[in-house]
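Peptide ABC transporter permease structure dump, as promised
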Amino acid sequence: MLKFLIKRFIGLIFVILCVTFLTFIIGYYAPSNPIQIMMGDHPNQALQAQLMHAYGLDQPLLQQYANFLIRLLHLDLGTSFKTIGRPVNDIIAGGLPISLELGLWALLIQVGIGVPVGIISALRANSWTDTVSMGAALIIYALPSFILAILVQFLIIWLDNTFGWSWPNTQWGNPWQYSWTDIQYKLAPILVYGATGMAYFARLSRTSMLEILRQDYVRTARAKGLYERAVVYRHAFRNALIPLITIIGLSVGFLVAGAFFIERIFSIPGIAGITLDSIDNLDYPVVQGTTVILAIGVVFGNLLSDICYTLVDPRIKAE
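structure tokens r here:
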């Protein structure tokens, strides 16, 4: 296991190097000068040269990239172009906890509801329960998340006009704090983000469970006279989880990246807004910082899924 983790850690470093270098190339060869845009139409040439030197933008690409890697080793993502002198770490720290809160609650809904619904549908295949649940899952899964978000907003407006239920006109609030106003504000985006993933997990877990139930060892267990509950939970369920673990691990990696549409539509001040605003403002240090965070999340999700593989099925060895 230690050898496996070392290999994965090396892979993490390689992915970060590739992603950050590509981001650097895009920023370096961009047609616009962020310092010049920051200073306006009539920049002071001396001040512009001073800022270029302060940010290291007058150095060659490889030297700038090396400086970034050195700062990254010290967990320093640099300083923002738009808000001069403000550390990128502080900017990301303001949005990352919000995105993580949204993503983790959504993942809990996706797995906690989607997987049981899929398993129950598989155990009651071709019944009305299976037909209704999978039909609803198909409809929800077919809807893009931003369309579902807009429909939910229309529903909120209708509830407000019909029943006088007012949507709280506040910001997201502090992460992991839940007053009644916070719950009202956070509930809709969390449900929307969790709904599409929940539908996907429901359909995937149903397919996986049906495939396992057709295996010979399950038929043998039933032929031996084992109770159906023992057959399902002791033999079928654990093996049906194996293909799901990969998807769950990848979902962990994309918790933040997958919420861009949701955060934008519901005006949530998370990583999505920070990233898109920094792209609009050519604030490359912030873009590079969010890129590193997202890359680490994706690789960590893959690592988590591989580790869980070995825990669920000891026959799978980490080589």
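The longest helix spans residues 88-123.
lmk if u need the other ones
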